[in-house]
Design a protein that fits this description.
With 400 residues, this protein is an alpha/beta fold. The protein is built from 13 helices and 15 strands.
């Protein structure tokens, strides 16, 4: 048994004891992590892992959380585990099994029934809590991990009217921490860890997981003319309407084009707000995403909150720095002044945008630092870390 530590510029976090992983300083992300040196030896092949989540990666509404679950499930399957994803809505064939629990909302009632019929032989459950919890400890006694990408507290009023938003916030802030009071909590950023602590979750039950980034592929050319990119699902909290307003202030200074890639419920409202030089690209292929991220001068991310902001790391791997607000998640994925810039106000965001657009040398320096940082992130490492947390949960459950 060895102690794992991670160091950043200002903090040393308490190490966690994980079997079979040697002591090593982790990738510098400002988070408590397991060592990248960890090997599959810590796990035992043949575990049945049940992941309870809202959506499959095939859903039109899939985002970073669904991508992460898919990558972890594929990785565990390749390592010899049996993985079952219990979710609602549309799905597609995968190397792992998908069990449908109902529709987007009825699944919260249907999941316990589907579990009892088809997944009771699992060794461990991973409940992915994206705001609305499934409360799996109330209907299963198997070892359980609760995965939280970010705390949704301030997002409930944006998504739902009262009393739904009131009930949702109560379930996330009060009932979810109570239901999982004896379980490990898994998240992807220091910001979310602090959010969980604010809900009363003890720090010693919180585990961190590094996001991975898929390889960038063959180099693609940078645009000769100013090109700025925003990429993600078009929902309220992504605040693309704010970006469109700021574009009207920045465009006379920088010129060029603003490409908004992605789809979502906000698109019909946003398109009429677009001024000159704005292109709504809709959902794009991985190949086009690669070309756009490589061509862009800057990635613009005006979201109100994130768990990490996976697109930031994807753009960084292509040498494209990001500008975002100093909010949870983005302050983890963007190192202010080193891999991008974080703004505390709309004026600061517009100023950073225009300044970097007119400063090719600084833009290149930020992009190179971002690329080096992102190159240390990989899905195989994330899968090994995830496997170690699964073993810890199974071991803790067996000891109860």
């Amino acid at each position: 048994m060895t102690i794992i530590y991670s160091f950043d510029r200002s903090n040393v976090y308490q190490g966690k004891t994980i079997a079979g992983i040697r002591e090593e300083t982790s990738v510098t992300t400002g988070r408590m992590l397991f060592s990248p040196a960890g090997q599959r030896a810590v796990g035992r092949a043949g575990r049945h892992v049940a992941i309870v989540a809202w959506r499959d990666i095939a859903s039109p509404r899939a985002g970073g959380s669904e991508l992460m679950v898919d990558q972890l499930a594929v990785g565990l399957t390749e390592m010899g585990d049996r993985v079952s994803l219990l979710c609602g809505g549309p799905s597609a064939p995968h190397p792992y099994r998908v069990v449908r629990g109902g529709g987007p909302y009825t699944q919260f009632l249907g999941a316990p029934v589907a579990y009892a019929r088809r997944l009771r032989d699992c060794d461990v459950i991973v409940e992915v809590c994206n705001g609305m919890p499934f409360l799996t400890p109330l209907w299963s006694r198997k070892p359980t991990i609760c995965m939280v990408n970010h705390v949704h507290a301030d997002l409930w009023p944006l998504r739902f009217p009262p009393p739904v938003s009131t009930v949702g916030r109560f379930l996330e802030r009060r009932v979810m921490p109570w239901a999982h009071r004896g379980n490990l909590m898994l998240t992807v950023s220091e910001s979310t860890a602090r959010g969980l602590e604010s809900l009363g979750v003890p720090r010693d039950r919180i585990r961190m997981l590094t996001n991975g980034v898929a390889p960038a592929g063959p180099p693609a050319p940078r645009s000769a003319e100013p090109l700025f990119l925003a990429l993600g699902r078009l929902t309220e909290y992504k605040r693309i309407d704010l970006l469109l307003r700021l574009w009207e202030r920045v465009r006379p200074v920088t010129g060029g084009r603003l490409v908004i890639a992605g789809d979502g419920p906000e698109r019909p409202r946003l398109e009429p707000l677009a001024g000159d030089g704005v292109l709504f690209a809709g959902r794009i292929s991985d190949e086009r995403k690669h070309r756009l991220m490589s061509a862009a001068w800057l990635l613009l991310h005006p979201a109100l909150i994130e768990g990490w902001g996976l697109v930031v790391s994807e753009a960084a791997l292509r040498g494209t720095p990001a500008i975002g607000f100093d909010v949870p998640g983005l302050r983890d994925s963007v190192e202010h002044g080193r891999t991008g810039l974080l703004a505390r106000s709309e004026s600061e965001f517009a100023s950073a945008w225009a300044t970097l657009a007119l400063s090719p040398a600084r833009r290149a320096a930020l992009g190179e630092a971002a690329r080096k940082r992102a190159s240390r992130l990989s899905w195989p490492v994330a899968v090994r870390h995830f496997s170690a947390v699964l073993d810890e949960a199974i071991g803790t459950g067996a000891a109860r």
